[in-house]
């Protein structure tokens, strides 16, 4: 059975909701999933899974989650070759060019760590709605197919 680790950063719950939706879909697809909050997660735990997913919020005009900086920095020292990754996060389109920049930053960090992108980055405006849930379900399916 394939394994996945879904890591989220959240203040108001939107990115935890996104992580929950992805986790539920991955489990429906037969994946053994671990879900955890970013400040409680060691970056090297991703070396022990097949599929790595990060769900980060963006703050203060394009900043990464403060409590996720150790995790982000530690990604530079892990080897994720042979792993599949995906990033899906919530921001607010009000912030224009800074919309969801943390999604792209974590995607680059995972790629630089050697993982293969399994699905396009997903950027959601505020809380996930019905259309977003469909997008997240398709995202999870692509990750599983890539990991096969
Ligand atoms: C002070 C502040 C700054 C923010 N800056 C950004 C930003 O630069 N880019 C963005 O996409 N969203 C920004 N947001 C919006 C949050 O990312 C958005 O509300 C997100 O859904 C929060 O996720 P969470 O519910 O998981 O905490 C900001 C929100 C606040 C309150």
TrEMBL record:
Residues 4-144 form the Flavodoxin-like domain. Keywords: Electron transport, Flavoprotein, FMN, Transport. Pfam families: Flavodoxin_1 (PF00258). Its cofactor is FMN. InterPro entries: Flavodoxin (IPR050619), Flavodoxin/NO_synth (IPR008254), Flavoprotein-like_sf (IPR029039). Transmembrane segments: none annotated. Low-potential electron donor to a number of redox enzymes. Belongs to the flavodoxin family. This is Flavodoxin. It comes from Secundilactobacillus hailunensis.
């Amino acid at each position: 059975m394939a394994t996945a680790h879904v890591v989220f950063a959240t203040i108001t719950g939107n990115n935890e909701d996104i992580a929950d939706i992805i986790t539920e879909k991955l489990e429906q697809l037969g994946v053994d999933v671990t879900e955890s909050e970013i400040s409680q997660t060691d970056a090297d735990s991703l070396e022990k899974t097949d599929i790595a997913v990060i769900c980060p919020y963006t703050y203060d005009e394009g900043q990464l989650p403060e409590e996720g900086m150790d995790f982000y920095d530690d990604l530079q020292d892990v080897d994720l070759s042979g792993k599949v990754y995906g990033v899906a996060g919530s921001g607010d389109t009000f912030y224009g060019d800074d919309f969801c920049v943390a999604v792209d930053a974590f995607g680059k960090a995972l790629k630089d760590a050697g993982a293969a992108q399994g699905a396009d980055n997903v950027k959601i405006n505020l809380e996930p709605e019905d259309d977003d849930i469909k997008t997240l379900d398709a995202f999870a399916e692509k990750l599983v197919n890539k990991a096969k």
